[in-house]
Amino acid sequence: MSANSLLSSAAGAKQRNFARRYMQDKESTLKLPRDPNSIMFGYWW
Questions:
Q1: How far apart (Å, rounded) are the C-alpha atoms in residues 32 and 4?
Q2: pLDDT at 27 over 90
Q3: DSSP 5-21
Q4: What is the pLDDT of residue 39?
Q5: What's the pLDDT score for residue 34?
Q6: ∠17-22-26 over CA atoms, to 5°?
Q7: Does residue 43 contact residue 14 with C-beta atoms inside 8 Å?
Q8: Amino acid 29: pLDDT
Q9: What is the rounded distance in angstroms from the CA atom of residue 37 to the CA atom of residue 45?
Q10: DSSP E strands, the chain
Q11: CA atoms within 13 Å, Cβ hemisphere of 17
Q12: What letter would DSSP give residue 38?
């Protein structure tokens, strides 16, 4: 497996985690922290 495919799969997993956590419905969107730096690593960075 190449380094690029590992990076893209990690980025895709973070995007799915973020959408699953914060973009399901209105209530989950309201759970977004005001400070983006407080979003956990597995959801953002």
A1: 30
A2: yes
A3: HHHHHHHHHHHHHHHHH
A4: 87
A5: 92
A6: 150
A7: yes
A8: 92
A9: 9
A10: none
A11: 13
A12: G
Place of tokens 């190449």: 2
For the chain, helix (H) and strand (E) counts, in that order, are 2, 0
Threshold 0.90, pTM exceeds: no
Residues 44 and 36 sit within 8 Å (Cβ to Cβ):
yes
- C-alpha distances in Å from residue 32, one per residue of 23, 28, 41: 9, 7, 14
pLDDT at 35: 92
Mean confidence (pLDDT) of the chain: 81
Buried b (16+ CB within 10 A) or exposed e, 16-34: eebeeebeeeeeeeeeeee
pLDDT score recorded for residue 26: 94
